[in-house]
Amino acid sequence: MLQLNGFSIEIAGGSLTVLKSKIAPTDVKETRRSLGDDWFTMYHEGHLYSLAKNSNASGGLGETELLVLSDHLGLRFVKAMLDQAMRGVFEAYDPVRDRPFTFLARNVDLVALAAENLESKPRLLSKFEIRPKYELEAKVVEFRPGELELMLALNLTTRWICNASVDELIEENIPVRGMHLIRRNREPGQRSLVGTFDRMEGDNALLQDAYDGQDKIAASQVRIEGSKEVFATSLRRLLGNRYTSFMHSVDNEYGKLCGGLGFDGELRKMQGFLAKKSPIQLHGGVEVSVGRRVQLTNQPGYKTTVELPQSKYCFDRSRTKLHPYVWDGLARFGPFDRGSFPTRSPRILLVTPDSASGKVSQALKKFRDGFGSSQSSMYDGFLDTFHLSSAPFFPLSVKLDGVQRSDVGKAYRKAIEDKLARDDDFDAAFNILLDDHANLPDSHNPYLVAKSILLSHGIPVQEARVSTLTANEYSLQHTFRNVATALYAKMGGVPWTVDHGETVDDELVVGIGNAELSGSRFEKRQRHIGITTVFRGDGNYLLSNLSKECRYEDYPDVLRESTIAVLREVKQRNNWLPGQTVRIVFHAFKPLKNVEIADIIASSVKEVGSEQTIEFAFLNVSLDHSFTLLDMAQRGITKKNQTKGIYVPRRGMTVQVGRYTRLVTSIGPHMVKRANLALPRPLLIHLHKQSTYRDLSYLSEQVLNFTTLSWRSTLPSEKPVTILYSSLIADLLGRLKSVDDWSPAVLNTKLRNSKWFL
């Protein structure tokens, strides 16, 4: 039995009379200010809807409008009122946020629970808290066509809080320089984030970066902003060698709270609390009551929930070599482009710290040639699996003896530059790191420094840590499967596609993303690069494109230019003929605020495809939404006395939550890695109204198929590659920005067809 993470809402009353006024978006804030607290307002599609809160209200705007509370506009108005009413329902709590209404648990702290069995607790440990964070948001849903209703969704996450003063942290020798400071008491309208800590001067904290040129603030007014990074830095120093086991206890407490059983318990408690508070009085005499949990059921004539067929991996162009499991298919058939991959004997540069070169060479020989008779044939080697003739390694030892941590990146840079000056004819490179160096700051991190130099020479890079390569042979075989797949793809190979029926002459799936290149949270966030990744309908990766760097206000024009250029290139490459039917499906994860990306894409498609019959679909594909699914019949998977995946729905379940909106589960119970994880969130797929192709069943199945196409691993990913690849590119672009002499220009030339970002 499938359930959503919320409760049905019953509305007493059939209609409501409001005022409706046409207002530009830029005038909404000022209009609301002028109306004051006597009016409740909702802005929707260019109009401001107003309702007097009391009989003394004056100064209303617009003409009267009757809202029927069972249709879309009426339900949206009730939703807005209910969201605002949550502050009164939870009057005992100070909200963290009003929309959606968010508050923290007062008597539950995961750090304190994990510390109950800890002997000799450090004094400052009590100043670190992880508190449950509850978020309530009303949602208009449509589980069957024309049957609109309102539900109240509950989300449960955590807030990480550091209450220790800067002085206390310094006394414990915790390196606080560079950590962000936030205000202890924030006034309305005031920023919480103050700046980045530099050092103490008397009673003041001096700032490295800050808003408005502020260079110091009284230390008593601020505290360190809580984050996982701050906790890791601080608790490692406080707990020493007990840190790892302690954080495992924290993870277990988190799993008890946010896993299937824990979340179900929180839903039950919230339902009981809200039932006692019902009916809830809203403005205009409207009353709402919180009912039972939302059940998802199919009815005769219409299916709200559908289980999609599982993807089949494809290993040849004729679609005759298919297999349900990717590695078994690779081992049996070889890669999809087995007969056309041009580099049969790739030359691979092996960059290794001198202290580990022997162990690394032994491990990578097994990576290339397989494990022989020492293990069962779980991994047959890079050469045999991908049908290569040879893959000679060219070792480059980086001398690190006596090198300071801050200079490790320089040592890698010098060694690689000297090598490439003599010989730069490499098809790929391995860059091996000591564990101690993997988390150095980006500007001198050997991972990023080496990647920037090698990418600049058109050489894709595969990284690995020494500890990974020296693990036991059983673990290594699974690791090598993923490494081999990623390395082959980075060299331009196609490990596999999916068995996806083609119903038009040509079908493209295009991922639209962007990278924000601000170097600091305190700079104006206005430098952007558009990221476009292009695939065939079966998931075969074609190319990626980066737009020129631009200001925020110029981004729409730059995105349009970039999209037109990419589509024209694909049109020429695929030889679109006049009258040919072409389908183009666009996936966007999180469009920039106030940028109508769908409008830009629609006009670009029209301009490029004027001679063709274009079917066009624009999808927002997101994990950032209010819905979670629970399968109350799923009792989990038990291994080694641990049960994981309780209440996790099967992979491939789709649920209609709106006429053009679906939820799709991409992580099933067998894919949940540990018992102490939260319930996985489904993908939310929303079809834009401008789309001319609207088969959401087909599009949902395609999105699910694209989660199996990540060549970063042999397992499906949580996101489709259209979204995943753009986010990987964006993350690396943001980090590489910190490295001296880095330029992304090569990514649009030598590496355009490479999956360099895997």
UniProtKB/TrEMBL annotation:
Domain Piwi stretches: 429-738
InterPro entries associated with the record: Piwi, RNaseH-like_sf, RNaseH_sf
Lineage top rank: taxon: Bacteria
Gene3D superfamilies per record: 3.40.50.2300, Ribonuclease H-like superfamily/Ribonuclease H
Alphabetical list of SMART domains matching this protein: Piwi
Pfam family, one: Piwi
Family of this protein: Belongs to the argonaute family. Long pAgo subfamily.
Protein name as catalogued: Protein argonaute
